[in-house]
């Protein structure tokens, strides 16, 4: 193994950087997609790329099973992705090396899938973005710092969460379910995975709960869609669907 590879693997923010790279690549792919005619850099209208890789109940009902994962990497406009990646970078600086890559990855994706479940439960239309995962990381960081004696306001992340929750409920075109779902997932894992005062914060317990959240979130999203819509079929690549329960 080369020295360059060894140095890269020792990077304390390797996972954070990899996630950011995937988000950027997805953003570039969305910008290059002309099927829906939307403008990826300004947000614009929903594109065919969004319909395929963003998250929607009809998409899941039509068999696009990958959407709870891929939607976490689809962004709507340059401000959307820049804000999420900036916050992710700052959280990665504090969390990744401190809690270890295994727990960090578990926390990130458990929050992401919890956000996908929340979006299916509460939102309408096509959703996407890393916000659910970022909300989860920030919530877990807040819990961890609170457990170590800092007040909610001293944690830094707590006030940021409060401001973003206010924006979640007051700004248009924001995934309320995605943000709340990620927040709940992060709070749960913050207590289970990062509490320094109890035995349950051991790595195995935290990772196991994180995996349980992922499985339950995915299963729950599909169950909701099946009950709400049944099976959907797209009408000749038109972006319109016919479902057997509507």
Structure description:
- There is one protein chain.
- Helix content is 65%, strand content 2%.
- It has one domain (3-243): Rhomboid-like (Rhomboid-like fold, Up-down Bundle), CATH 1.20.1540.
- The chain has helices at residues 3-9, 14-32, 48-53, 57-61, 67-70, 78-99, 101-122, 131-147, 157-170, 176-194, 203-228; strands at residues 232-234, 241-243.
- It has eleven helices and two strands.
- Estimate what percentage of residues fall within beta strands: under 5%
- CATH level 4 superfamily: Rhomboid-like
Terminal-residue CA separation: 57 Å
Approximate shape:
globular
What secondary-structure arrangement, pairings included, does this model have?
Elements: H1 3-9, H2 14-32, H3 48-53, H4 57-61, H5 67-70, H6 78-99, H7 101-122, H8 131-147, H9 157-170, H10 176-194, H11 203-228, E1 232-234, E2 241-243
Antiparallel strand pairs: 1-2
Helix pairs in contact: 2-6, 6-7, 6-8, 7-8, 7-10, 7-11, 8-9, 8-10, 10-11
Concise structural overview:
With 246 residues, the protein is mostly helical.
Structural descriptors:
246 residues, mainly alpha, Rhomboid-like fold, globular
